[in-house]
Q: What sequence folds into this?
């Protein structure tokens, strides 16, 4: 794995671990090593039999991209052979499955190579083909200009003006991964945007754009560029922040009062636990930020925290936190402390925390419960204009 030679950030254990993983056969250990990611792949729509077939064919983790290309080629051939007999809805489902498979194939902890970029591009393009077929003009690929670069998002629109929910994922995902959440929110009456900002998904893999400490300003710039767009009420915005993406949501809401609600799924308050984090998360953080030396990483970690009382006191949005009881990345005590801070503030808003028993980081094994919770929260605190009672008189 190329990453191991590119950074000083790994401990001796990390070096031993990665070489052990490289030597593992799929039977002995690959399934166990990758199992924490399975629930995310299930949530994205990858069938269990496909995951198991893929892992059985790997041999070692170094074969990941080659095996992925072979599996995808077979699935694409099946689609091409059958597409002529499919109804439009069947084509949409099949295309979405191909996109989901492409996302799994470019797993976020693998080295960034042209081969991996190609796997991501396949996932993106099949996603676009499916959503254009499913939604027509109510879906579009949206470009955002920021600091001289172009970033992209996937926008599902309502026929009438509706609150906008922006999905802000973390450091090891991509915008195409969250389609099922987008669709659930869209069915509930929201326009939705899932985007790849600096250091994420398409921006990183295709354009080589690294994380920027002003990520929260990028979110506000995206809202500026959607101002006046049909189907979007940019004065009433909700952010769904996943992992470190939730941290950036809080930073954005402290400065941008258009953000009326935050759904926090596993957001850390700080990144001081980096030395004890799993190797795979360390790998991704180094890829996303470009940090390699200890001093560079220390600087990045210092920039990623929301413990400033002034920042938290400025967050007036409704807040719903959902947290896994067994989260190894973010402590439950930190989330109770954050809840107490929000409840002590003078703002008139909802602030609540749900701890899911047995849940891991971002509650990946409980994605249906999390999705339902997010839909219920946003529907409660950001009703559409048509649902807001008209004052008498």
A:
């Amino acid at each position: 794995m190329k990453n191991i030679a590119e950074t000083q950030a790994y401990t001796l254990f990390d070096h031993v671990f990665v070489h052990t993983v490289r030597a593992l056969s799929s039977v002995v250990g690959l399934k166990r090593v990758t199992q924490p990611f399975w629930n995310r792949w299930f949530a994205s729509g990858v069938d269990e039999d496909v995951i198991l077939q893929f892992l059985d064919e790997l041999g070692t983790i170094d074969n990941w991209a080659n095996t992925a290309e072979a599996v995808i080629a077979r699935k694409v051939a099946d689609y091409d052979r059958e597409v002529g007999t499919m109804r439009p809805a069947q084509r949409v489902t099949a295309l979405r499955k191909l996109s989901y498979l492409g996302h799994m194939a470019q797993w976020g902890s693998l080295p960034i190579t042209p081969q991996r970029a190609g796997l991501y591009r396949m996932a993106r393009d099949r996603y676009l083909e499916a959503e254009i077929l499913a939604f027509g003009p109510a879906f579009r690929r949206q470009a955002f200009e920021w600091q001289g670069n172009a970033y992209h998002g996937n926008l599902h629109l309502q026929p009438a003006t509706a609150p906008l929910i922006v999905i802000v994922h973390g450091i090891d995902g991509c915008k195409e991964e969250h389609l099922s959440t987008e669709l659930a929110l869209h069915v509930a009456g929201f326009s939705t945007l899932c985007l790849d900002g600096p250091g994420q998904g398409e921006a990183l893999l295709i354009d080589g754009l690294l994380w920027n400490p002003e990520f929260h300003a990028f979110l506000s710039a995206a809202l500026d560029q959607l101002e006046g767009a049909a189907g979007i009420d940019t004065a009433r915005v909700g952010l769904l922040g996943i992992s470190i993406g939730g941290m950036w949501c809080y930073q954005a809401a402290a400065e941008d009062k258009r953000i009326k609600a935050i759904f926090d799924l596993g957001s850390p308050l700080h990144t001081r636990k980096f030395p004890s984090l799993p190797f795979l998360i360390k790998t991704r953080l180094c890829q996303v930020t470009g940090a390699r030396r200890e001093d560079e990483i220390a600087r990045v970690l210092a920039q990623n925290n929301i413990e400033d009382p002034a920042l938290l006191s400025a967050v007036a949005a409704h807040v719903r936190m959902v947290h896994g009881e067994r989260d190894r990345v973010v402590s439950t005590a930190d989330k109770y402390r954050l809840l107490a801070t929000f409840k002590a503030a003078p703002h008139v808003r909802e602030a609540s925390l749900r701890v899911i028993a047995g849940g891991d980081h971002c509650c990946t094994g409980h994605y249906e419960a999390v999705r339902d919770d997010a839909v219920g929260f946003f529907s409660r605190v950001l009703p559409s204009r048509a649902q807001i009672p008209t004052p008498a008189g």
About this structure: The domain at 2-385 is CATH 3.40.50.1820 (Rossmann fold). The CA atoms of residues 202 and 391 lie 46 Å apart.
